[in-house]
Amino acid sequence: MTDIKIRIDAKEIITQKDRFILDVARENNIDIPAICHEPELERFGGCRLCIVEIINKGRSKIDTACSTRVYDGMEVQTKSDAIIKKRRQVLQLLLDSHPNDCLTCQKAGACLLQKYAYEYDVKFRNHEGSKREEVYDLSSPYILKDNAKCILCGKCVRVCAQIEERSILSFADRGYDSYIACDLGNDFANSYCISCNRCVSVCPVGALLDKRKIGKVREFEGEKKTVKCKVCEFGCNFEVHSKNGNNLAVTAKKPTEGRPLCLKGRMMTELMYLDEPDSPYMKVQGDFIESDFLTITGFKKAFQKMQELESKEG
Predict the structure, then answer these.
(1) % of the chain beyond a pLDDT of 70
(2) How far apart (Å, rounded) are the C-alpha atoms in residues 95 and 90?
(3) Under a CB-based contact definition with an 8 Å cutoff, are residues 294 and 268 in contact?
(4) What per-residue confidence (pLDDT) applies to 223?
(5) In sequence order, what are the residues at sequence separation of 6 or more whose Cβ sits closer than 8 angstroms to the Cβ of residue 115?
(6) Which helix (H) or strand (E) element contains residue 225?
(7) What is this structure's pTM?
(8) Three-class SS state of 87
(9) What is the rounded CA–CA span in Å between residue 312 and residue 297?
(10) Fewer Cβ atoms within 10 Å of its own Cβ: the N or the C terminal residue of the chain?
């Protein structure tokens, strides 16, 4: 690729043509806030937090760093007064529609909206305008969906669509009434969702939560250890969360490098690492029913066969 020279915040950088401003900036330790961006996902440019000022021949324009490509001689300002003001306005609009429950939210300490609101000194305020409707999907034992906290970043939709046969989530309705819907328009139980938790792993706020972790441990407490699933050759990454020496929960990490994530791998990892894993559930005709680890991991028939062979030998 052809090397080009650009300037970001007066720092001269040599990079390659057609790369995105956000990627180049972060590689050079220049922080640009972004909520809807995820390196492994299609560019979206929806949250508008990554806006920067681009100066060309004395003229400037504002554009999103995540979806704007660099060119030779480009000059970028990431922290001008105008940019800071606009980012604060974006954050204020998001908070105005968001529930003020950060103190008790399971996502506290790992929420990007919380992080950037703190960094830009933007606070909740009382207003008479609209707020997102409080609609919850509690139908799944694995995923909690809270529409009121959703900021429509689209990460869940894009990560679900990466696996062609899934594509469960999509945007529904229009304007301020937009929300994330399941494929059959109902809830997780009455959908083709397989509870892989890809959507949960990329959600930047508390709109999608791992239900089996809620109330056990939060991001800012306890310890985390990354482990690899042993069920198949993909070797998906999971995190084991522990507190006071007890392994309490397993969560899926972001599915990088094409790793698919699946419920079988998640349940096997829970079985292997948790001290007291919760009962697993499987979906049967739109209902989640309590099951057992042998069944849900697919090893029940193999275990029965082993028992038969042992009894014959014995």
Answers:
(1) 99
(2) 9
(3) no
(4) 95
(5) none
(6) strand 223-228
(7) 0.92
(8) helix
(9) 26
(10) C
